[in-house]
Amino acid sequence: MNRENKRRKYDKNYYKKNPCTDSFTCRNCGWPIVSAGAGSNHRNHCPNCLCSLHVDNEPGDRASDCGGIMEPIGVWVRGDGEWAIIHRCRRCGKLSSNRIAADDNPMKLMALAMKPVVSDFLDRGRLKEMLSSMQSQGDLI
């Protein structure tokens, strides 16, 4: 085992400072994943189904014993305009946020973004009423 592999295996904070270039297969959908194309040095979710694994307690520490699948439940926009995916662990329920990657499935991202609008939680009649009352406050677009 060379020096870099030893660091990767035994240094708990290795992935905080170093890129993860390992290829892997998504445990949720079976998609083969490579780090190239992500637009980042830290690939942390599947670009096909947007699922991740619960391996960190803090970003990059690989200290979680859970190992559950983190499913995407929503998106949010950071202050600088960058989108991030909100994940929830199927096993323990922990919530986390991961920035989107350049090669993420755009249809899945839009479906996540539209989820609150198309869910039964919001009554469509009430939503139309709210939008019509907002039109007097300026353009919606």
UniProtKB/TrEMBL annotation:
<dbReference type="Pfam" id="PF12647">
    <property type="entry name" value="RNHCP"/>
</dbReference>
<feature type="domain" description="RNHCP">
    <location>
        <begin position="22"/>
        <end position="110"/>
    </location>
</feature>
<dbReference type="InterPro" id="IPR024439">
    <property type="entry name" value="RNHCP"/>
</dbReference>
<protein>
    <submittedName>
        <fullName>RNHCP domain-containing protein</fullName>
    </submittedName>
</protein>
